[in-house]
Structures are given as C-alpha cells and as structure tokens.
C-alpha cells in the first residue's frame, strides 16, 4: 500500500481542479442559446461520471501493494499493444482508426497506452547497473512500438506526448543533460527556423548549455552544424 505520508496531495488538488475546469468548459461548449431558448447536450454530465470513476480508481490503486504493479505492467502493456493493432481494423472515423465503439462508449487504446508505456519505460530504465546509453536504448526501444502503431492510425498529436514523457523520464533518471539536448535540438531548430534570429538565439543557448555540461568542442561543433544544416 502506498504510504499516505508520501502521497502528493497537491497533485490531487490540481487534478480535481483540472477536472472541474474541464467539466465547466464542456458544459459551456455544449450549451446553445437561441433567443430565449437554451439547450444543453449531455456531454458534460458524462464527463462528471467518468471523472468520479477516475477518483474511485485512484482510491483503489492506493490500496494495492506496489509489487502488484510490477507484476501487471508487462501483460497490461502487451494487451494494450494488441488493442492498438486491432483498432486499425475498425471502421474509420474522419479518416482515422482510433476508437472501439462498445455499448455506445468510444474507447481509445492510445490513451491507456500513454500511462502503460510510461510505466514500462520507468520499470526498465531504473534497473540497477544500466549506464546512460542502455537507459536511452531501453527507453527508445519500448516507446517506439506504441508510437509507430499510433502513427499508423494516424494520431500524430498523441505521439508528441509520448516523446515529451520519454525526455522527462530521461531527465528524472539522471541521463546527462547534453544527451537530452542533442535529442531535442533538431526539433527546436525546426521551430526556430521560422526566423534567422530565432535560430541564432537557439544556437547560442545550445552551445552555452553544452559547454556547461562539459562536452568537447568537437561534439559541440557537430551539434551546431546539424542544427544549421538540418532544421
């Protein structure tokens, strides 16, 4: 069972606040006013029901012993990958194969894949005896499978969440900063390439951070050239 003294109540408050804002936004978006006539769709109360179920799920998870999570992560992850494969054979909705429709409820396996993939990556990159190269290899290897399946759906926006989570885990597990910078620098260079001044500012920041990390000038020069020639 999770120690209540270590429970992050601030995170719970933020979560409830986010749920509340979401319900208000959905209620506002589903309300139509025409003259004196006001009609509201039922989407907002569905959100409330599922939000309540999520809070019950949190309460249940907090009562489970931690070893159970370690046992269930792998089979749950494999089942989710199978769901990501099967969803590709469902009827397309707006040109994408993302949802299972069961009893009037749409289930999107890519959403559960976010959590399960994060748990899988965390399980393997925190093992003892792994250097930073093996940590990154394990992380990219596990993350690549669900990301490729989700890209086939296609759902490119969701894949960005996976990569952002992976970089955050690399930082949390202690992967050197210059490795993380080398990974994200081409992406930032693409965004910065909109204007020459933006790319110049990014190169200055990149070189400064890499120097702070103790990287050799050869590696710094290569990183800068890659960012300039392949934005």
Low-confidence stretches: none
Whole-number tally of structural domains: 3
Q: Please tally the β strands and state the result.
A: 4
Q: What's the helix count? A: 9
Distance separating the two termini: 48 Å
Keywords:
71% helix; 231 residues; 9 helices; globular; 3 domains; 4 strands; two-stranded antiparallel sheet
Report on this structure.
It is a single chain. This protein is mainly alpha-helical. The protein has three domains: 1-64; 65-173, no CATH class; 176-231, no CATH class. Helices cover 71% and strands 6% of the residues. The protein has nine helices and four strands. It has helices spanning 9-29, 43-62, 66-86, 109-125, 132-152, 156-173, 177-192, 196-212, 217-229; strands at 31-34, 37-40, 100-102, 105-107. A hairpin with a 2-residue loop joins strand 3 and strand 4. The termini are far apart.
Give a brief rundown of this model.
The protein has helices spanning 9-29, 43-62, 66-86, 109-125, 132-152, 156-173, 177-192, 196-212, 217-229, and strands at residues 31-34, 37-40, 100-102, 105-107. With 231 residues, it is mainly alpha-helical.
Which helices and strands appear, and what pairs or packs with what?
Blueprint: H1 9-29, E1 31-34, E2 37-40, H2 43-62, H3 66-86, E3 100-102, E4 105-107, H4 109-125, H5 132-152, H6 156-173, H7 177-192, H8 196-212, H9 217-229
Antiparallel strand pairs: 1-2, 3-4
